[in-house]
Amino acid sequence: xxxxDRRPIGxxxxxxDRLIDEEFAATIEEHGVTRRQWQxxxxxxxxxxxxxxxxxxxxxxxxxxxxxxxxxxxxLIESDWVRAQPSGFVLTETGAVAFGRLGERVAELRDRxxxxxxxxxxxxxxxxxxxxxxxxxWNA
Length: 140
What we know:
Elements: H1 9-28, H2 35-44, H3 51-62, H4 69-78, E1 82-85, E2 88-91, H5 93-113, H6 119-135
Antiparallel strand pairs: 1-2
């Protein structure tokens, strides 16, 4: 295929993002968790996080969504997976167990998505996309 016949980066970014969303839906929504909620659980798995930090770190994933960080958190709190404390939101014991169980499924999905891709190649792609985002004004 000639270089001029290749599809542009935007095509591949949107396609891969859509496929990731679909695979996440098939993989974790059966456990009552959305991709955005998984991302919140992932952020909270490290340490207590204040709401403004969650908003900042989750904002790129919510730009095309009708839900907010607060909407996604509400469901996790109602399920007793997350609770608020003075230092921010944290995983409950139940949430930590669920996060571990879901983490195994997500790791399988990531392994499948990266099959045949060397770690250095993957890191190069991620680094290139980050530089492109910064070149276009992203500065998180």
